[in-house]
Amino acid sequence: TDPQVLADLARGKLRKKLPLLQQALNGRFRPHHQFLLGQILAHLDYLTKEFLRHGADPALPVAVVENGTRPNQITVTGTVSDIAAKAKAHGLRGPTIIIVGEVVTLRDKLNWYTPHPGNAHADA
């Protein structure tokens, strides 16, 4: 919830604007935001079941990225039908981002971020 810590996550051109970004985040990211983000991960099983119930392809690729672009980034990949179990098995707690769709299959080609050697790379 610290604006300085949140702003420090900025990459690329935003790095030049850290003071402005810190100012913009000041007082806006509160503990309840962190709670809400955690709830999404905690309810991933329910969300994927609902996604399937509404017609999603069970083989649709999904990636869950914890601590994205940070040295301790962990990426778990799977499908709509198995990602909840895989995320739970890897003990993901957040903060996370969930990516759904064929773009997940381009991960190795794009390789836009490589975590520090020794950190988890939990591909399925």
Highlighted features:
124 residues; alpha+beta; three-stranded antiparallel β-sheet; 6 helices; 3 strands
Question: Overview of this structure, please?
Answer:
The protein has a 3-stranded antiparallel sheet with strand order 2-1-3, with helices on one face. A hairpin with a 7-residue loop joins strand 1 (61-66) and strand 2. It has helices at 3-7, 18-25, 31-42, 44-53, 83-89, 107-110; strands at 61-66, 74-79, 96-100. The model has no long low-confidence stretch (mean pLDDT 76). It is α+β, with helices and mostly antiparallel strands.
Identify low-pLDDT runs.
Answer: none
Radius of gyration over all CA atoms, rounded: 16 Å
Structural class: alpha+beta
Strand fraction band?
5-15%
How far apart the termini lie comes to 32 Å
Can you list the strand order of the major beta sheet? 2-1-3
DSSP helix fraction:
25-40%
Q: Any idea what the shape is?
A: globular
Count of individual beta strands = 3
Which whole number gives the mean pLDDT? 76
Total number of helical segments? 6
- Sheet having the most strands: 3 strands, antiparallel
Please write the string of helix (H) and strand (E) elements.
HHHHEEHEH
How are the secondary structure elements laid out?
Elements: H1 3-7, H2 18-25, H3 31-42, H4 44-53, E1 61-66, E2 74-79, H5 83-89, E3 96-100, H6 107-110
Antiparallel strand pairs: 1-2, 1-3
Compact summary:
The protein is α+β, with helices and mostly antiparallel strands and 124 residues long.
